Amino acid sequence: MQTGTNPPRSVRLCNLMVGIAARLVPTNQRAEFQREWLAEIWHRWQFLAFAGFWNNREALGLFRTCLGVFPDAIWHFALQDPVREKVRSWTRSPWTCLGAFGAVLLLIAVISGGFPATRQVLLSSSASANQRLVFIWFHPNVGGPDKELPSDVPAAWRSQSKLLESVAGFHVSRLYASATGSSVHPKVIETEAALFKVLGTAPALGSIPSDQGAILTARTWKSAFHSDPEILRKEIRIGKDYYHIRAVLPSGFDFLTRQPSVFLVSGWLPERVDVVARSRPGVTEPQLDRELVRISEDAVYYFFRSQLRMSWLEDALWTPVRLFTIAVCASAFLCLWAAKVRPRQIRSACHPMNRKPAMRRALFFSSKVALALVVAFVAGLEWARSPSAILLASRDPASGPFLLWLYILAAMGIFFWAVADQRARCRVCLRLLCFPVRIGCPGCLLLDWSGTELLCTEGHGVLHVPHMSASWEEESQRWISLDESWKDLFIASE
């Protein structure tokens, strides 16, 4: 195939991309940059055209290859001394430190879909539906894990209890539901119709069946049935059987899990069930325990003395907050002790001459610690209470010891990092110090000083950090402020 004098459209487009990207390259390197890229494009086109292999596929391949001209141009741009100096100055800025935590928090928000677990905790105190809801389960005295209760116990408590307004049993089934033409498999929760009275919710579509039927959450209706308005005329398969869909719950309804789920209402529950109830105002756990144990012995002949466990839903939701508070308090105490903060230093910071810079340093320290702690708390909570997690008091992953230890390690790392970062910053502008210079001989500590000196790029002072400090020396690091006569030495670096 003979090559023409005019290059094809794809080659002209690649040449245009090289011309645009070359604007980022320094002027003294721009001609060489363009020459290299244009030569590579021309030779590849000429070789393939001469060999007879030039086609649309090769044109697309050449275009993908030319996309690398932009990273190459950015790399040439970033290697310029003024740009590198600005980047270094930007990374040392205190605002960059705070902005980094804000960016991480924004990333967690995007990944989690807007902090659903955190919002559930913060909104639980204002949600009247969560007030006075209590989970009840069985914990044997002889050991072993938590277990469910016999299925005839909720009916006895519902008919005879004076401390409970309503009671319902439920069982998280191992079966999964499936809809025709959908790949979504919602979780199945076997329950009785009284559950929705306990939770204080009414369906958005249809009605709660009194005999048998399936009730969909809003997530299941949208994901498995694409918000079909004729949903009440359809069936859903659960295991090997098909059940009529009788209702769809409102979009704000969340119980046990945030993943798509189906409530299978039936007159017959499995042999063992979990129990959720709504207590009357002012009922305490000892009072409720005594009454429920007595009813179980008199009505259904189950002896649960000292074996019933209870947890109010609102308390279960706030358990991670309490665990995180414990972790933060313990870590702050250890950090305060390790940092050797003395009353004399606090009195010096409160002196009228030092009060303003001390307040600025304290504000920056508290801001970065607070942002870092918020990131650690939100990340741990969103990870523990993922959409597939079961929020049941005895099986809530956010109430276990693993999350507590994770919070302790995260809080300790944050506090110790914050102290080390604060000591490595300028006492005036709070920028990270730079230009480390080693001075002295480490083996000559008797008559000489050995350590590292770090300088503030704005000329505010010098930090002396010894390689080894004596046991009687109260402050190993010494900050020396520089007066205005030193400013002229730093004008060229701006």
Description:
With 494 residues, the chain is an alpha+beta fold. 45% of the residues lie in helices and 17% in strands. The chain has helices at 9-21, 27-51, 56-66, 69-78, 81-92, 94-112, 116-124, 153-160, 194-199, 218-225, 285-300, 313-339, 343-349, 355-384, 401-423, and strands at 133-138, 149-150, 164-178, 187-191, 205-206, 213-216, 235-238, 241-248, 261-265, 272-279, 308-312, 434-439, 451-455, 461-466, 478-481. The chain has a six-stranded mixed beta barrel with strand order 3-4-9-6-8-7. The protein has a four-stranded antiparallel sheet with strand order 12-13-14-15, with no helix packed on it. A hairpin with a 2-residue loop joins strand 7 (235-238) and strand 8. The longest helix is centred in the last third of the chain and has 30 residues, at 355-384. The chain is flat. It starts with 8 loop residues before the first helix and ends in a 13-residue tail after the last strand. The model has no long low-confidence stretch (mean pLDDT 84).
Strand order of the largest sheet: 3-4-9-6-8-7
What is the averaged pLDDT score? 84
Report the helical percentage: 40-55%
User: What fraction of residues sit in β-strands?
Assistant: 15-25%
What profile does the largest beta sheet have? 6 strands, mixed, barrel
User: Based on DSSP secondary structure assignment, what is the total number of beta strands?
Assistant: 15
Number of helices: 15
What are the low-pLDDT stretches, counting only 5+ consecutive residues below 50? none
Termini separation comes to 59 Å
Rg, rounded, reads: 34 Å
Provide the succession of SSEs.
Answer: HHHHHHHEEHEEHEEHEEEEHEHHHHEEEE
- Principal-axes shape call: flat
Q: Structural class, from secondary structure content?
A: alpha+beta
